[in-house]
Amino acid sequence: MKARRVFSVAAIALSLCLLAGLCGCSGEAEVSPALEFQGIPWNSSPEEVCEALGLDINRQELSTTSDGSQLLTVSGSEFFGEPAVYTYFFFDNYTPEASDYYGLSMVQIFYPEDCDKGAILSALTKEYGPEAQEYTQYSYFTGEEITYTKTEEGSSRWFSQRTMADILTNLSEEDRQTFLDFYVDGLSDEAAEAFAAAEPAAYIQWEEDYYSWVSNSFGGTQSQHEEYGRVAWVNLNGAIVARAKQMFGADE
After folding, report:
1. How far apart are CA 45 and CA 103, in angstroms?
2. What is the pLDDT of residues 25-66, one digit of tens each?
3. Span 122-136, mean pLDDT?
4. pLDDT of residue 52
């Protein structure tokens, strides 16, 4: 039988302190705790998202993706000061056996090539704080360190102040293990604690040239938006928060 993994509040707090020492930058403004989009809480329903943005959900395209997510497509809206080609809102159901609820887990915004990229980056910085220059996470496969380091202009990351460890502290011991095992089942207790302390509850990625990033990262290019040139892209991901809220009613 697999040994139960126990995560003490003290151990998680210590790991958080160590992480702060590794990744903190004194004198800079703090990064947004939850990296929410337009102040809309992660795990909001499609109706709540549309209400918050002043959209009529009946006029939008709500479809189902190949992996089972619900996708709300919005055309022509302006976000972060520039008109977008498309904005995709992804909603996931992490408890299909118990509920048919789908909550907001990710937002992707595509901008035309001729958008004011500097203005978008400035708006992101104003909203979420300074972009990360370096951030250390841990592989959920091996437990090894994975350090993001900013190396080029036109590509930026933000990692939320809140981490998976913050979410775990609000759960029971049994629920903590159940939740964490979705991500790091098989790692040692020490490696799992390090992972949880470093893994952001949400993150944002900004790419001025989406095609170049996809090609470099995945060995191919995307053609979906080619009529708009080499589109720029913002990706906001809060899946960890949405999963915790659905499974355990956890606070952000």
Report:
1. 5
2. 334 457 788 999 999 999 999 999 999 999 887 766 789 998
3. 97
4. 96
Task: Give the helix/strand (H/E) hosting 11.
Answer: helix 9-23
**Phi-psi sector, 61: left (phi>0), alpha (psi -120 to 50), beta:** beta
Q: Which of 132, 82, 121 is nearest to 208 (CA)?
A: 121
CA distance 73 to 229: 20
| DSSP secondary structure letters along 210-239 | HHHHHHHHHSS---TTGGG-S-EEEEEE-H
pTM above 0.90, yes or no: no
The answer to whether residues 145 and 200 touch, using CB atoms and an 8 Å cutoff, is no
Tokens 């089972």: give the residue.
68
For residue 119, what are the CA distances in angstroms to 81, 108, 188? 7, 18, 44
DSSP string for residues in 15-54: HHHHHHHHH--TTSPPPPSS--BTTBPTT--HHHHHHHHT
CA atoms within 13 A on the CB side of 146: 11
| 150, two tokens | 């900013």
Q: Taking the CA of residue 214 as centre, how many other CA atoms within 13 Å lie in the half-sphere pointing to its CB?
A: 13
Distance CA 138, CA 182 (A): 15
